[in-house]
Amino acid sequence: MKNPKKMTANQPDGTIGTKLCGNRWVADNGREYVMSKGLLIVFTGNGKGKTTAALGMAMRAAGHGLKVCCIQFIKGGWHYGEIDALQRFDGLIDLHVMGRGFTWKSDNMEEDTRLAREAWDLACTAIASGTYHTVVLDEFTYLLHYKMLKIEPCLHFLANRNPLQHVVITGRYAPEQLIAAADLVTEMQMIKHPLTNGVKAQKGIEF
Fold this sequence. Notes:
Layout: E1 5-7, E2 19-21, E3 24-26, E4 32-34, E5 40-44, H1 50-63, E6 68-72, H2 81-87, E7 93-97, H3 109-128, E8 134-138, H4 141-145, H5 151-159, E9 166-170, H6 176-181, E10 184-187
Parallel strand pairs: 5-9, 5-10, 6-7, 6-8, 8-9
Antiparallel strand pairs: 1-7, 2-3, 3-4
């Protein structure tokens, strides 16, 4: 098996900037941010913009000097512009691209399931580390929808994470249990899409 693509961006001396201290995050720039509650945020629906919204939040946190971990569970078979963009946040955003491409087109669901479980183990480590202000689980809902992971243990882990840890989950088909557990849920609804008029995906827009 090929090693999953992994792009990390730590500080030059190898140290981690963001630290959780009591009820506040201390950012890489030394600023302190008091948090009242870590949020579980879900972007779902059949419309465009779920990943875009989550990565926008990642960049917002990085703009405050807060460290973020982004794990893409499905899009490993494609090269997306946001991968290059996130690398520009040197020292603040760690990006891990997992999986082999779109799950619903899989020719080897067993292998995809194994990779998905490895990615979830990585996500659990990131969430439990106390290193990241925000952890983004991009396309994570597909793992639950296609039953690659059992939902109950995942929700149990998320419910018992550090109470100040923010987690953002994206993807279609968010299960009702996840929606019920979340603090914020936004459903992207497609009203019009250029694909219906024959306009194919364009660089800088869809990828």
